[in-house]
Write a structure and sequence with these properties.
The chain is mainly beta and 212 residues long. The chain has helices at 2-16, 96-103; strands at 38-46, 49-57, 63-71, 82-90, 108-119, 129-139, 145-150, 161-165, 170-175, 180-185, 198-201.
Length: 212
């Protein structure tokens, strides 16, 4: 199973980074039904490192999420995707009624976070390895995009704000050590915005590189 999921993850990164794929408009949320057993919830690219969150229907009928990682080679081609983590028995976020039950009318909720040691090969990494923190968010279907603000200590003005398009109601954000961001929802009708932006942080290990 992981092999076929890894191939799907690699294909998702290839499509997300293809010329002209600027992600300016959100796409309809994918659904698990009929012959569809795997959907790409979101991709997150940090330089030459790519992360993909997949949702898939298990044989017992429950939905599971799987996180994959790939590195972009010098040729620009994404390498084979590696499985980082997974969890089962989560709410079926590809069903509108279950997603709405979790959101309860809010524009954005945090579903959880996890940390995994990865060979990033960044300059400040410990022998090339760093503890990367992954945040998974659920977004109201009326929201068009997320606005991410870089609040990391020493962040450059050029890395201050990023518009993140949505390919489904599930968003994945990967943070390197000591990075921090604020998340606000884009325009959306009929939803309750949070009074304060959602604040997300990376691990406590030393790092100073800007995020993107």
């Amino acid at each position: 199973m992981h092999r076929s999921l890894a191939e799907t993850a690699r294909a998702a990164l290839t499509a997300a980074c293809a010329p002209g794929s600027d992600g300016d408009a959100a796409l309809p949320a994918p659904r698990l039904g009929g012959d569809t057993t795997v959907v790409v919830a979101d991709t997150c690219v940090r330089g030459d490192l790519g992360f993909v969150l997949l949702l898939h229907r298990r044989k017992d009928g429950l939905v599971a999420e799987e996180l994959f990682f790939s590195r972009r080679e010098n040729t620009g081609v994404w390498g084979a995707a590696e499985h980082l983590s997974g969890s089962g028995g989560i709410p079926d976020l590809t069903r509108p009624e279950e997603a709405a039950a979790v959101l309860r009318g809010w524009s954005l909720v945090a579903l959880g976070d996890s940390e995994t040691g990865i060979l990033t090969e960044r300059p400040r990494a410990d022998e090339g390895h760093e503890l990367v923190r992954f945040h998974v968010l659920l977004v109201n279907e009326a929201v068009g995009h997320l606005d991410l603000g870089n609040t990391s200590v020493g962040a450059s003005p050029a890395s201050g704000r990023v518009r993140k398009p949505l390919t489904s109601q599930v968003a994945l954000i990967a943070l390197f050590p000591e990075e921090s961001v604020t998340v606000r929802t884009g325009a959306g009708a009929g939803v309750r915005p949070s009074d304060e932006p959602l604040e997300l942080v990376g691990s406590d290990a030393a790092s100073g590189a800007p995020w993107a």
